[in-house]
């Protein structure tokens, strides 16, 4: 009777040991998969950031061109105002002469 109980206990211990080994192996596999997934997420985040940057380049170029055009327009307006002021000054001098 005692031997049968010891055999049952030994079988249960062996089963528990196998289960523990299986769980450890599963844990290792999950940790590896988790690490791979983290690296994949980092890679995808970098890819998204790169694509967003590329998507913004045409908009940035367009804004830079618009800015340059506005600066040129401002320069032309300032030149016209200077010319008009010079003409007014000449008219004023000719009226007082």
Short description:
The protein has 97 residues and is mostly helical. It has one helix spanning 2-96.
Structure write-up:
This protein starts with a helix and ends with a helix. With 97 residues, it is mainly alpha-helical. It has one helix at residues 2-96.
Q: Please give the number of β-strands.
A: 0
What's the main sheet like? none
What's the shape? rod-shaped
In DSSP terms, counting alpha (H) and pi (I) runs of 4 or more, how many helices? Answer: 1
- The low-pLDDT segments are none
The SSE string, one letter per element, is H
The helix content is: over 70%
Mean pLDDT score: 92
Q: How much strand?
A: under 5%
Structural class: mainly alpha
How far is it from the N-terminal to the C-terminal residue, by CA?
Answer: 139 Å
Radius of gyration, in angstroms, nearest whole number: 41 Å
List keywords for this structure.
single chain; 97 residues
Task: Give the secondary structure arrangement, pairings included.
Layout: H1 2-96
């Amino acid at each position: 009777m005692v031997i049968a109980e010891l055999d049952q206990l030994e079988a249960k211990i062996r089963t528990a040991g196998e289960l523990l080994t299986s769980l450890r192996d599963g844990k290792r596999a999950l940790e590896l998969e988790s690490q791979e997934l983290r690296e994949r997420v980092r890679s995808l985040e970098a890819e998204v950031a790169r694509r967003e940057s590329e998507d913004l380049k045409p908009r940035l170029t367009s804004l830079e061109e618009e800015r340059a055009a506005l600066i040129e327009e401002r320069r032309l307006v300032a030149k016209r105002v200077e010319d008009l002021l010079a003409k007014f000054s000449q008219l004023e001098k000719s009226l007082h002469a």
